[in-house]
Amino acid sequence: MSLCLPLIRRLKFPDLFSGIDRAPNALGTPPGGRTFEVFNPSTGELLAQLPDMGVAETRAAIDKAHAAQAEWAALTARERSEMLWRWHELIVAHTDDLAAILTAEMGKPLAEAKSEVSHAAAYLQWYAEEANRIYGETISAPSTDRRMLVIKQPIGVVGTITPWNFPASMVARKISPALAAGCTIVLKPAEQTPLVAGAMFALTAQAGFPEGVVNLIYASEGDAVGRELCFNRKVRKISFTGSTEVGRLLMRQCSDQIKKISLELGGHAPFIVFDDADVDAAVDGAIQAKFRNAGQTCVSANRLYVQSGVHDEFVAKFVARVGELSVGDGFDPGVAIGPLIDTRAVAKIETHISDAIAKGGAIRCGGKRIGANGTFFQPTVLTGISGEMKIAQEETFGPLAPILRFEDAVQVVRAANDTIYGLAAYFYASNLKRVWRVAEALEYGMVGINTGRMSSEAAPFGGMKQSGIGREGSRHGLEDYLEMKYLCMGGI
């Protein structure tokens, strides 16, 4: 593997970055020396050339994980917990370097990258503690000569596929509960952002994880790797974060084996501001919920509904705040919004803006690319939005905020729920009766009430409808990696 020297010089511990190619799963370069390149989306700078792995390498990684599974599951919960704790401590100690790698390959501002690495470490800490809290149960037997109980055991080898928008925290959120439960891992990071995953995995040897417990696959195309993970009988569970379209495909591929699957898929989050809301607080929350990571999050506010009584006040204050957001290279001081991940993301925003303008929408600020080349885009606010516009029906995944006026709660809840997605929703209100009624009526797995940010390792993350299956984080996230076994003991 070759690495870009300017990036290495930027890091305090260049050995961490150079250790990426020594991350677990030392399968070597694929036959023919296939490689793929990783670029900095801010500058176009070549960051690395990585081995481009395929079916053979994935199968070898699965075999390694399968061979290590029994021994890893046989460890005590305390032993697994201690290794997760050590990994957590190493991640914390290398936060600056991991954040620099993340910003270089993904583009988000360095402060956001550091926050993400801290969030990743928090998941490792949480599940290091939860590893010791996997409990069974006893059941009252129908006769005196029986004893009935339930135990929980690790499901086995887990295949995981993580996205490019949160390449550090998604790695930790997926594999830390699996490791805590006693499962071994094969992970494929997104081809756009594989480097921070490699650096994190490079630290697992120092944390004491045995050979074969954690395995990493680099690949420029996910189809072949995904098929092998789904069809290989040694893999007992798939965990995927990404688009709903790919999630459907993985479900079909897992169906023949009735393979357990967890899916965290697309969203189309409504952000509702009622007349009785604190407008200034709602503006703050909307900035957080819409423009974090340049709007490239599955829980990003995609439709901003504002009740007529506060509509004009909210729009004026929101537009003023959005106009203050600085756009640029994530390493530059004071930058709030980095680049979009690629030119396709820019094209989608432009399509949504053009469609909205053609149907009566108005640009209140932004609306254009920054520079002739690259993927920087002005943070944009549109008003006069109606339900037939693409932006009201499709996830944009960028710094584009459409505002829709509404009149009453029944109307807005109906509009908010009128989507195949059900991941996250937000609303601002003061009336306690309204808060309860709206929170219960919204068909979403997560609802932020008077807040624009709600992710936590202690809370269950996941959606309803076509936004996914299962939950990540919290004690509930551990259950997806455990099998429940009923034991009935006779002749007692």
Automatic annotation (TrEMBL):
CDD domains: ALDH_F5_SSADH_GabD (cd07103). It comes from the Bacteria. InterPro entries: Ald_DH/histidinol_DH (IPR016161), Ald_DH_C (IPR016163), Ald_DH_N (IPR016162), Aldehyde_DH_dom (IPR015590), Aldehyde_DH_Superfamily (IPR050740), Succ_semiAld_DH (IPR010102). The keyword S-adenosyl-L-methionine does not apply. The keyword Oxidoreductase applies. Keywords: Oxidation, Oxidoreductase, Potassium. Pfam families: Aldedh (PF00171). Residues 33-486 form the Aldehyde dehydrogenase domain. Belongs to the aldehyde dehydrogenase family. This is NAD-dependent succinate-semialdehyde dehydrogenase. It comes from Mesorhizobium denitrificans.
